[in-house]
Design a protein that fits this description.
Blueprint: H1 21-37, E1 71-76, E2 82-84, E3 89-91, H2 93-106, E4 111-116, H3 122-134, E5 138-142
Parallel strand pairs: 1-4, 4-5
Antiparallel strand pairs: 1-2, 2-3
Length: 147
C-alpha cells in the first residue's frame, strides 16, 4: 500500500463516471405512466359547438333497452318437479313453455332465473333451459353461495 501523496502534493482520485441512462429511462416511464393515468377534463360546450340547423328531437319511446328488467324464477326440486313464480306454483314442461311465452310477450327484457336442487339430474335442468331458450329470454342459473 502506497500512502504517499503525489509528487505535486495533490492527491490523485480516479474519475467517477455517472451513467444517467437508467435515470432517463425511469423518468420517461414515469412521464408515460402519468400521461396514461391522468383523467381528462372535458371542456364546457362553446356556442360554436351548437348545431347550425335547429332540430326538435322526438321523445324516446319505451323500448327493450330501457324497459324495467324483471326476473322470472323457476325452481326445480330434487325429484325434478318444476315450480314457478313467487307463489311456487307447480307446472309441467308444456305449461312452463306457455308461461314463458306470455312473459316474453309482456316484457322481453325479463331474465329467467333457474334454481335447481343439487340432487336433480342435469338432463332435467337442460330440458328447462331449452324451453327457456325457445322463449328468447335471457337465462341465468342460480348457484348456492356455499353457506
Amino acid at each position: 500500500m502506497n500512502f504517499r501523496s503525489a509528487p505535486s502534493g495533490l492527491s490523485r482520485r480516479a474519475a467517477t463516471v455517472v451513467d444517467i441512462t437508467a435515470l432517463v429511462d425511469v423518468v420517461f416511464q414515469l412521464l408515460i405512466f402519468f400521461l396514461l393515468t391522468s383523467s381528462y377534463v372535458s371542456q364546457p360546450p362553446t356556442p360554436s359547438d351548437d348545431p347550425q340547423v335547429p332540430v326538435d328531437l322526438p321523445e324516446a319511446s319505451l323500448t327493450a333497452e330501457n324497459q324495467k328488467v324483471e326476473d322470472f324464477t323457476i325452481v326445480v326440486d330434487a325429484e325434478g318437479q318444476i315450480f314457478v313464480g313467487p307463489e311456487s306454483e307447480q307446472v309441467t314442461v308444456e305449461a312452463l313453455a306457455n308461461r314463458l311465452a306470455r312473459v316474453a310477450d309482456a316484457n322481453p327484457a325479463t331474465v329467467v332465473l333457474i334454481r335447481g336442487d343439487e340432487r336433480v339430474r342435469h338432463g332435467r335442468i337442460a330440458q328447462i333451459m331449452a324451453v327457456a331458450r325457445m322463449s328468447r329470454l335471457r337465462i341465468s342459473v342460480v348457484l348456492s353461495d356455499g353457506g
